[in-house]
Amino acid sequence: MAQASSSSFDKALAVASGVVLGLGARALWDRVRAGSACAGSGGGGKPRSLEQLVRPNIWGLKPYRCARDDFDSGVLLDANENSMGPPCANADAFERYPSPYQWELKALVARHRGVAKENVFVGVGSDEAIDMLLRIFCVPGRDSILITPPTYGMYKVCAVTNDVGLVEVPLTPGGGTAGAAGFQLRVAAILEAVAEARGAVKIVFACTPGNPTSRMLSRADIVALLEAPGYDGIVVADEAYIDFAPEGASLSELVREYPRLIVLQTMSKAFGLAGIRCGFALGDEAVVEVLNKVKAPYNMNKLTSRVAQAAFAEIAKLRANIGVVLGERARVAAALEALPSVGAVHHSDTNFLLFEVAHAHAVYDTMAHAGVVVRYRGTETHCAGCLRATIGTREENDAFLAMLAKTAASLAAADDAKKAAQQ
Ligand SMILES: Cc1ncc(COP(=O)(O)O)c(C=O)c1O
């Protein structure tokens, strides 16, 4: 690991601890460099270093090395490829493995997100990074992650798959319509749960904007978690939907200030490239190095890399597309609010709307069978009676609104008839 990276990791821990000790950041940083203990977190002692947070087997892992790490041109007979090539079109020298480093793509991501290319991990969707982070930090059968329901389901799936414990601290209830506060972190309750787990919580997952909540989390709350002396683990801010949120909302630039912050982003949402499977983890260089060490050597394929790079050359078009989605979001939200069977339409910072509707499950089911598929979220915490609908094209949105109005009206009429028969 590069010396500078481990230093920045320790420096931020020192600054966070300085709050408790009432020492200046400079003085504390000097103490840490001198090797003296500071008041800490994660069970009352000194905050754990990155080395102490990462599973020992991972920290000591020697990464897979291929001959092409050292030599990548000449007569290449080192990787058991087929020099004859494929029987189909061969645009990108497909007979050769892709670059394990992806520096060109990382440079584009870095420039777009205001970080250095060394802060970027490239993965097969952000789902790959979520699973890797659990495998890197959490000892199966011993450690836990903390999630804040209602939230993205894969955190739990990865925890169960990896035999990692799950601590759940629900968000505040949804505030309903635009302007009202809601679906926010309960920072004090999170810190209480972390303290109770006595150092076992290695990662807190904060989905911002949230899925299915559709709302940004408060930046101050995430910074409070990062600076709390009672928590020394990793904070993952999952920003899959960040490009639909107001300009400047991303936490990506904070990864250079807070080495325990990892920001996840993806090309699956605003970039409209769910089919290529490309996502990113932005983090401290030392954390990214560990991710790179653990990943499969050629996780990013040539086709995906080429399309992703082409997309970064079209940022003006990306912004225009996002503008269209946001316009449609406002139109669909207004139309939903006008429907008598629809209750709260939650404020959205994403490309979907979460809303309450009478007979939510029956509405969902009837619509799906008629060809308009949305997501029933009524079993999620704070989401009773809620559906989640993605903003589509204007035509798709019109079809959705028309089908919803028709279905909700017929279910309401059936309900009225049933009640009348019972009287
Ligand atoms: C909050 C959140 N994070 C991550 C993902 C996964 O994204 P990807 O397609 O990059 O794996 C999704 C997908 O729906 C999501 O909603």
What's this model, at a glance?
This protein has helices at 3-21, 25-33, 50-53, 56-59, 103-113, 125-137, 154-161, 187-196, 219-227, 285-294, 302-312, 315-337, 360-369, 394-422; strands spanning 120-123, 144-147, 165-168, 201-207, 234-238, 261-266, 279-282, 342-345, 352-357, 375-376, 386-390. With 423 residues, it is of the alpha/beta class.
Structural overview:
There is one protein chain. The protein has 423 residues and is an alpha/beta fold. It folds into three domains: 3-33; 50-64 and 96-313, Type I PLP-dependent aspartate aminotransferase-like (Major domain) (Aspartate Aminotransferase, domain 2, 3-Layer(aba) Sandwich); 316-422, Aspartate Aminotransferase, domain 1, CATH 3.90.1150. It has helices spanning 3-21, 25-33, 50-53, 56-59, 103-113, 125-137, 154-161, 187-196, 219-227, 285-294, 302-312, 315-337, 360-369, 394-422; strands spanning 120-123, 144-147, 165-168, 201-207, 234-238, 261-266, 279-282, 342-345, 352-357, 375-376, 386-390. A hairpin with a 6-residue loop joins strand 8 and strand 9. 39% of the residues are buried. Bound molecules: pyridoxal-5'-phosphate. Pyridoxal-5'-phosphate binds at residues 125-127, 152, 207, 211, 238, 240, 266, 268, 274, 279. Pyridoxal-5'-phosphate is lined by residues 125-127, 152, 207, 211, 238, 240, 266, 268, 274, 279.
